[in-house]
Specification:
Distance between the termini of chain B: 22 Å
Helix content of chain A: 55-70%
Strand order of the largest sheet of chain A: 2-3-1-4
Order of helices and strands of chain A: HHEHEEHEHHHHH
CATH architecture of the largest domain in chain A: Up-down Bundle
Number of helices of chain B: 15
Radius of gyration of chain B: 34 Å
Shape of chain B: elongated
Helix content of chain B: 40-55%
CATH class of the largest domain in chain A: Mainly Alpha
Number of strands of chain A: 4
Largest sheet of chain B: 6 strands, antiparallel
Strand content of chain A: 5-15%
Number of strands of chain B: 19
Shape of chain A: elongated
Number of helices of chain A: 9
Largest sheet of chain A: 4 strands, antiparallel
Oligomer: heterodimer
Structural class of chain B: alpha+beta
Structural class of chain A: alpha+beta
């Protein structure tokens, strides 16, 4: 069986559509980040208390709400958990915002929630499945760490690509990956899903994955440039994308399949993580074709206009 | 090629055997049991999978430094008196400059004498400078501050470990944490009551006995008024209630404690004559002598009777008049419950923390959630893998078998690796396994697509395989190295489950380089050897 035996699609000719598509999603994400849901940081980064409770029967949210109000916990948020597969769960997450600006009184929130539950559900004791309490210091630290980890891994990859290809390849790949990260974070903001530590891990994974896709195309461009220096860069880039298209579609499709299985069967603990990967793999595959490769051509055209060398350096020759 | 191939096949089988052994036996001595228990015994499960408590706490290192500076300042005062220098004032660590002692008001002509004292061996940790107004400033050297900080953290870890050990938790993790130098990670598998743990670790983080200078007053303003608006430099105001339930009061205490947590040799929970829980303690000989000197000078029947405050975590817990001289044993009553008295005496027995601590993070996972997560994660992994394997067989036919064998082998190596190294498998780690599957498949697809291209270009099967691997290899290396770079950075900067994820991904990718490239090639080669040259390749 073979899909895409010999495609001959003019990818670069569609660059304005791609640009429009990328702009719409990036701008929608940015607008949501700025004006709508903002950055929906989870308890990991924002600090606060989050308690996951399982009830014997399907809990009545209004009843829990009243119990919290009676205990004086008016700022508690109560959220019912549902699996992506639509599985009804007798679970809720009760969250309290950061109670004070200090790390003191760390455990007070958890105790008051537990007491309120015990007082109101004494005949069918709800069980506490998970507690997460993050103080302001830890939250700030984690924010900083996540930011640094992302920046450093981008720099690390840029340096590697610079070393293996040329600087412009590295820059194009990093821009594409930045584009993917922006759109994925935008998707979290648009759907108002919490960004937790594991989501950051997923975003870093998608950075690696999107980079993979880009490198596969770049490798082929380098190879083709070394073979035929007469053809225009645009022609070589188009041919390279077409030659690697079957691989791109199969690999991304299969990875998408595993990630989708994680999203559907992995349970709601991994919900955010797998959502980031589902979105990230789609957008990462797209960007290697629609963002990274056209940038190489745009760079070369810009250089040509300034009267510099007309051909893009093919980069260091790969050792096979 | 024949001999070579046999050697390669043998090495693959050897690797397979080694890692299978790792899955089932790991570092432990071989034990028999069901397949499942063997695997779960040898793969270290993270707290998110097996349930437990995860705490991150911060040691207030600055406090230990400030109290060291205070102690040195008190000693300097005595040393100056011994040297016959009167009139100079020794300033204690003030919050803005906690590492500096200021000697001001030095009488004319005595500067040289003071210098001689502060340049003594007792003050070697300090840098001495002269202020414009003629006073001397002793600032603790950076190296000494670093030393003291490190020691404070180490002592805290030791103390917490001893306390946790007494709780009887199996395999606790207590270690330095994060990028700073003042955080400790505590992981307690199977413990799901963080309140009890926090209390045992912290509630008496710092216990001291201070001499009472004055009080109590209702508020700090009252206290200031009673002292003409100035707190004497060797004293401090401390809040607290004399007995349980009483409204808060403010006491004026001597700044340097008479007895600190480290001075306790033993402590036992007990009951006083009224049957209320209390704690009987014994002091070390050295502290006992010191305490005897003080209490004998200030007991009820002397000219200067005094009282003492028991200060717990910078709060006055109890104030008692000194009835008679105490040498090395006494008791603390403070309206405790029996549980509190038990826990408090446990703390005193295992030594006090050198500085107080606060909690930055608490995460508790109940055992049922962990079990559900394992089940779901495994179902997702198996479902994803089956779907991928089915597709590979349909799409690449014969070569699909290569890919699937490589995939299974990859998983065996990954799990075996974890068994050998004791790396922890976390929930994101399972996700890492799923991602490894994706990357492994990608390597195979890259190779197969390339071989198909070569075949289309009219190459023979053998040449196509040769060329396909050679071309794909470059790309595979590039893609793997970039992912490993990002995973390594994730490992360096991430914590907990994220680290588990990064580690799993790195192991998985390394295993993948072996299986997708080397193993797959050997299978192709052995296949080609059986076929006649030119026969079509099933791909």
């Amino acid at each position: 069986m073979e899909l895409f035996r010999s495609t001959n699609i003019d990818w670069l000719g569609k660059k304005w559509y791609f640009l429009g598509f990328s702009l719409i999603f990036s701008v929608a994400g940015i607008l949501s980040l700025l004006f709508w849901h903002h950055l929906p940081l989870g308890v990991d980064f924002k600090g606060g208390t989050q308690i996951r409770v399982e009830f014997a029967q399907t809990p009545n949210e209004a009843h829990i709400r009243q119990a919290m109000d009676r205990a004086g916990l008016h700022d508690a948020t109560i959220q019912r958990i549902s699996d992506p597969s639509g599985h009804a769960a007798n679970k809720v997450i009760i969250a309290l915002p950061q109670s004070s600006a200090t790390d003191a009184a760390h455990d007070a929130g958890r105790q008051s929630v537990e007491n309120a539950l015990l007082a109101n559900y004494h005949d069918s004791t709800p069980s506490i499945e998970q507690v997460e309490i993050v103080g302001p210091t830890a939250g700030k630290q984690l924010q900083k760490q996540a930011f640094l980890a992302t920046i450093y891994s981008l720099i690390g990859m840029l340096v590697y690509l610079w070393f293996r290809f040329e600087l412009i390849y590295g820059v194009a790949a990093v821009v594409a990956v930045f584009h993917d990260t922006l759109i994925t974070i935008g998707a979290f903001s648009l759907t108002n899903q919490e960004i937790t530590l594991t989501v950051i891990a997923a975003i870093l994974t998608l950075i690696g994955y999107s980079m993979n896709d880009t490198i596969v195309v770049f490798d082929r461009i380098r190879e083709n440039l070394a073979l035929s220096r007469r053809e225009s860069l645009a022609y070589v880039v188009n041919r390279s994308i077409n030659q690697t298209l079957s691989r791109t579609v199969i690999s991304s499709g299969l990875t998408f399949l595993t990630v989708l299985s994680l999203y559907l069967f992995g349970g709601e603990v991994l919900h955010g993580f797998s959502f980031a990967l589902v979105v990230g793999i789609l957008i990462g595959t797209y960007s290697s074709i629609a963002v990274a490769a056209p940038m190489l051509v745009a760079y070369q055209e810009w250089r040509a206009k300034r009267g510099k060398t007309a051909t893009l350096p093919a980069g260091k020759k790969a050792k096979a | 090629m024949g001999k070579n191939l046999a050697g390669k096949t043998a090495s693959i089988i050897a690797v397979l055997v080694i890692f299978f052994y790792g899955i089932f036996f790991g570092f432990n001595a071989p034990k028999m049991g069901s397949l499942k228990t063997l695997i779960t015994n040898n793969i270290n499960l993270g707290l998110d999978l097996k349930g437990g408590t995860h705490l991150v706490l911060e040691v207030h290192v600055a406090e230990a430094i400030a109290s060291a500076v205070d102690r040195d300042a008190a000693r300097l005062e005595t040393d100056l008196q011994k040297a016959g220098i009167t009139g100079a004032t020794v300033g204690r660590s003030d919050p803005a400059h906690p590492q500096t002692i200021v000697v001001s008001g030095i009488p004319a002509g005595k500067l040289g004498d003071v210098r001689n004292v502060v340049q003594g061996v007792d003050y070697a940790n300090y840098e001495v400078t002269t202020a414009p107004d003629g006073s001397l400033m002793l600032t603790m050297k950076q190296a000494a501050v670093r030393d003291l900080s490190a020691r404070t953290l180490d002592t805290s870890i030791e103390t917490i470990r001893e306390r946790i050990d007494k709780l009887g938790v199996a395999e606790p993790v207590i270690q330095k944490y994060g990028l700073g130098e003042n955080q400790i990670l505590v992981e307690l598998p199977g413990v799901s009551d963080p309140a009890r743990v926090e209390e045992v670790i912290q509630s008496t983080a710092k216990l001291e006995i201070h001499a009472v200078v004055g009080g109590p007053w209702g508020t700090e303003q009252d206290a200031l008024q009673a002292n003409n608006g100035v707190i004497p430099p060797d004293s401090m105001l401390v809040r607290g209630s004399g007995s349980a339930g009483a409204p808060e009061q403010v006491w004026l205490l001597k700044r340097v404690s008479e007895v600190e947590g480290t001075d306790f040799r033993d402590a036992q929970p007990s009951q006083d004559q009224n049957g209320r829980p209390n704690i009987r303690f014994t002091l070390t000989t050295e502290a006992g002598d010191r305490f005897y000197k003080y209490t004998s000078e200030h007991s009820a029947n002397t000219a200067t009777p005094g009282s003492m405050a028991i200060v717990l975590d910078n709060k006055v817990r109890e104030v008692a008049g000194i009835q008679s001289a105490i040498r090395d044993s006494g008791e603390i009553t403070g309206g405790f419950t029996q549980q509190q008295a038990n826990d408090l005496s446990l703390m005193l027995r295992t030594g006090a923390l050198p500085a107080s601590i606060s909690y930055l993070e608490t995460r508790v996972v109940g055992p049922s959630l962990g079990a559900a997560s394992i089940r779901q994660g495994v179902i997702a992994a198996v479902a994803g893998m089956l779907a991928v394997m089915l597709f590979m067989l349909v799409y690449y036919r014969g070569a699909g078998i290569n890919a699937n064998l490589a995939l299974i082998l990859n998983l065996v190596i990954l799990l075996g690796f974890m068994g050998f190294t004791g790396a922890t498998l976390t929930l994101p780690g399972i996700a890492g396994v799923i991602l490894t599957i994706g990357m492994g498949v990608d390597s195979n697809v890259l190779i197969f697509e390339r071989i198909r291209e070569e075949l289309r270009a009219g190459k023979t099967a053998a040449a196509a395989v040769q060329q396909g691997f050679a071309h794909a290899w470059v790309t595979i290396i590039d893609t793997h190295v970039t992912t490993i770079v990002s995973a390594a950075i994730l490992f360096l900067f991430g914590t907990g489950p994220v680290r588990g994820f990064a580690l799993t991904l790195v192991f998985g990718l390394l295993a993948n380089l072996f299986t997708a490239v080397f193993v797959s090639r050997v299978i192709f080669d052995s296949h080609l050897q059986k076929k006649e040259r030119g026969a079509p390749l099933s791909i």
